[in-house]
Every structure is written in structure tokens, then in C-alpha cells.
Amino acid sequence: MMRFRASLLLFFLPAAALADEGAGxxxxxxxxxxxxxxxxxxxxxxxxxxxxxxxxxxxxxxxxMASVLTRGQVDLWEFGSLGxxxxxKSSLCDRRTDVCRRAFNETDxxxxxxxxxxxxxxxxxxxxxxxxxxxxxxxTKQYRDKKSDATLNEWRVIQSLKNPYLTPFYLMRRxxxxxxxxxxxxxxxxxxxxxxxxxxxxxxxAENGNERLFENRYGPRQGxxxxxxxxxxxxxxxxxxxxxxxxxxxxxxxxxFDIVSKDARRSTKASSSRCARSDLTVGTAGCRIKF
Length: 291
Known about the structure:
Helices cover 11% and strands 52% of the residues. By secondary structure, it is mainly beta. The chain has two domains: 1-30, no CATH class; 42-290, monomeric porin ompg (Porin), CATH 2.40.160.40. The strands form two sheets. Strands 1-4-5-6-7-8-9-10-12-13-14-15 form a twelve-stranded antiparallel beta barrel.
């Protein structure tokens, strides 16, 4: 027991030291009653099916696919939460068997730290910092630019300003290997309770990237030259959810995806890929299981 207590103290020492820098957000005193207030664990499992797969401003697959999201975390008192994240994707059609297998062709994994800073009962800044790996082991080497390394190494930052009115949010992805690029999703959302456990959540967000991301997603610019960093695509999402109890909810949704960059639209139109789409409406259905 003494060895475990000493190890836990060493784990928190760097966090407590940050308080000396004047940030004011970190507690200086370590809780004396830590054994009486043990950290709580939570788990989220979210399976869903979609009519298409869109990521980073591009329609990767225009036929149905399935995925499973799993997130497990431990709450560490005033220090926020530590967690692990995984997302597995499978194709439900043979549309892309030339570039990837159908079952579990992509697995994403990450470790994260989450912290909510509350201003009052209604307002809070939610922050999450993630070390992320996108593993494309189910894809052919030709699709991966003939690289034997099938893993994208990323850093992510996710923040939202929770409030009773309109919640702004952003997701920033910085890939450092095998190629370097920057992607930023920024938008707003609001959840409207409808009664009887139903809720309607409209959401809009813009997808943005630097020149290297544009080239990575859409190929060489038509007519030569370089892409301009900026907005790639516009997305409007509408989700209807029903909460059965504290542990189970169901949802259906529709998403309208539109590439707004003229250069990206021209490159997409000239692409030989069977899944190249500049505009697409996507349907989603799934459930969320919480423990």
C-alpha cells in the first residue's frame, strides 16, 4: 500500500508543480482523503452504421459502412480525466476491395486527458488533448503511397464552450508522420430537448486545412500550382436521439456534405476514384451504451 501511495504521489507531482506558474487552475493541495474518494471509471460504446464515410473534407467511401467507438476513462478528482479511445471501421460493400479489405480496414487509437473548467452552473470550457494513431493496416501499400508504415501519427486538441444557448467548438489535428499536415474543424451546435427522452441536435461545421492537407486529400491541383490554405468543406448535421435510461440511448442523423473550395471541387471532379464526390447526403443510425 505504501508503494502504491508513493507512486500515485509521484504521478501528480508534475501537475501540482504547474500551480507555481501562476495559472491558478490546478489545485496546490493534494487531497488527504484520496483513499475515501477513489477515482470513478466510465465506459462508452457506440456502434453505428452510415451510408457513406467522410473524413477530412473528402468522401472516402460512398457506400454503407459500420464503425464502433469505444472510450474508457478514469476521473481524477480536480485533475480532470484520463482515458483511452478506439474506433474501428468496416465496409459493408465491395466498392473498394481494390484498396482495402472489408472487415476492420481501419483502427484508430488514442490516449487523452480531459478537463472541464466551469465558470458557473451553466458555462464551462471543455478541453481534450489527445495522442492519436490512425492505423490503416487493412489498406494496400499502393493506396498508402507505397509506404510500409501504415500508421498516421497525430496530435489532437478538442475544445468547446458549453452553455445554454449556442455551443461553439473546434477540433485541431496535426499529423507528424508519415506526412505533415494540419486540419481544423470548427462549428456550432445546440441540443433541443423535445420531451419523452427525445432531443434534436442541429450542428454546422467547416473543415479547413493547409496546403499539404489539400494536396493529400485531393491530389495535385488542376492546372498546376499550389492550393491555398483555407476552408475545404461545409457540413450540416441534424441528429434525433432518444434516451431510454441512464445507460442506453439511440440516434439517427442526416449530414449534408459540400466541398466549397473551387480548387478542391475541380480536383475531385477530375479524379478517377469511383467514390469521388463533391456533394453528398449521408444517413447515420446507432446507439450509445454507457457504464
